[in-house]
């Protein structure tokens, strides 16, 4: 059986691991939001066996995601759409999400961070990978084109403002620790929950 596959995941997974292994460094429970193809879960869970990696995605993507998770002997994905009012899950030590904030509408990005208030433990870490704008500017012409392409697919999608996302994170009790520039004009943002 052909498993769900994304070339970009293959390209970025080692670079992401190089950052998250410094932060997801003690045994603990992790929720992945927007698991996609499961390639990140498969690679990171194998590389960081001290983590209990639990992927999630919107209900319509869970069966697709589970194909790779089950082949990798990982727990089945949980259904979690960040726009849902509540996510009934015990607090976790870590949250990871890649390439999700520019896909979901801006209103859902607000909800994403609202969930951090309850889902993430105090001292917990959040790592978010993807493209961002700074002071309203794209970091590259290719990101500007990517933004146009996203909006062509869904007018509510689009590359988010770093400052807006940081403000939402601050409201959720998160302190920005790192903004890592990554290959292919992406960033890996790292926050710590302070309260
Ligand atoms: C471009 S894919 C990224 C998948 C994977 N994380 C990766 O890096 O390849 C965007 C993901 O966002 C998820 N997504 C979209 N809207 C969402 C929402 N409201 N709540 C949670 N996930 C959402 C999609 O189902 C999809 O898995």
Plain-language structure description:
This protein is of the alpha/beta class. Helices cover 39% and strands 28% of the residues. It has helices spanning 7-23, 39-47, 59-71, 106-119, 141-153, 162-171, and strands at residues 28-33, 51-57, 78-79, 92-98, 120-130, 132-133, 160-161, 174-182, 186-193. β1 (28-33), α2 (39-47) and β2 form a beta-alpha-beta unit. The longest helix has 17 residues, at 7-23. The relative contact order is 0.16. The structure holds S-adenosylmethionine. S-adenosylmethionine is lined by residues 6, 9, 33-37, 40, 57-58, 61, 81-83, 98-100, 103-104, 108.
Please give a quick description of this structure.
The protein is 39% helix and 28% strand.
Write the layout of secondary structure elements.
Layout: H1 7-23, E1 28-33, H2 39-47, E2 51-57, H3 59-71, E3 78-79, E4 92-98, H4 106-119, E5 120-130, E6 132-133, H5 141-153, E7 160-161, H6 162-171, E8 174-182, E9 186-193
Parallel strand pairs: 1-2, 1-4, 2-3, 4-5, 6-7
Antiparallel strand pairs: 5-9, 8-9
Helix pairs in contact: 1-2, 4-6
This protein binds S-adenosylmethionine (SAM).
